[in-house]
């Protein structure tokens, strides 16, 4: 009995010590993400951004305005002109990872299911500052098609891992001053566009160029030709949401490859284009060596230090052709913002992200960076350049057919076929050969995605 009592005493002492240590442990635990953002806790949010076309004026504005109302939060801005390349090892390794990053591409689609970027599905139910709308109602329908990522019923359904940074027209930009001097008018139909190219060529000026080293700039032509040939219904229901890969071998798509080939055969593309990058062809455009360039709404800001005095550039739609009876407006959505999943300050990061989406912030983006965003706001009271106004017209004009190639459907074969475009441009492959190769590639990718998703 004495032995039992002695053992019981030891157990009771250990129990008391355990409870005491447990209590001490609770008091000394690492603060939660929510408590770490309290007013008496000084924190720093690291924000990395792709410092290229839009410069850094908007990010600096975000920092200043956000810090005014969040005295305990410091925004550390890190601009990187090569962020598209450097962000992958940073996010995948977690070394020196930012809390928030703004870049372009579609890596978030891969990183989301892997748990490398924050799941923002519930975040889309948050009210956007300065509005009466929650984010899922504030974002445009075209952007939903891209950012509402469909993992399939067996894999979690619709998820959101990013928000749009910018979105705007990618199309033909023409030299307005040159057009006025030569008495030229931008055409409404494709046959008229071809005639315009002949007229410009006869003047001894190259009609058209694009960054040959980056064939993705041809996207506004290729996607517009594809939708014009297929028709909107088939483009949306079959091309963007395929039930099988047969659509990517449709004869209608051959026409797009042939139209691209014809630009070179007719001598309408500036000589040497295929060897030049975006900066080089943009300088040729600025120096009046070429009348039109395939480019995006970021062009003016990206080359802000190179424009001569009294320059005029105008964004224009892709001329009418095929099964659509109006010019078409291709809206590009290359840029996005995500939150790193292992940020120590998730609530502060989300608060900063919400502020970056507000109408006030969108207005500042237009004013400081010449950029547009796919949200429900207006720029009626914002002073912007004539070029930005022409970009706004492309988006808002009711007389243009508006579309984007963005799709959350994982089965869509999203590639433009950049290597094939280059091979057509250099004469290495014919449009027919490219069409056959593209069809095979699409079928292979379709089966791979099907296997990956377990379907």
UniProtKB/TrEMBL annotation:
Keywords carried by this UniProt record: Signal, Transport
Protein name (database record): ABC transporter substrate-binding protein
Recorded family membership: Belongs to the bacterial solute-binding protein 1 family.
Lineage per the UniProt record: Bacteria, Bacillati, Bacillota, Clostridia, Peptostreptococcales
InterPro entries: Bact_solute-bd_prot1 (IPR050490), SBP (IPR006059)
Organism: Geosporobacter ferrireducens
Signal keyword on record: yes
Pfam families: SBP_bac_1 (PF01547)
PANTHER family: ARABINOSE-BINDING PROTEIN-RELATED, OSMOPROTECTIVE COMPOUNDS-BINDING PROTEIN GGTB
UniProt signal peptide: 1-23
PROSITE patterns, alphabetized: PROKAR_LIPOPROTEIN
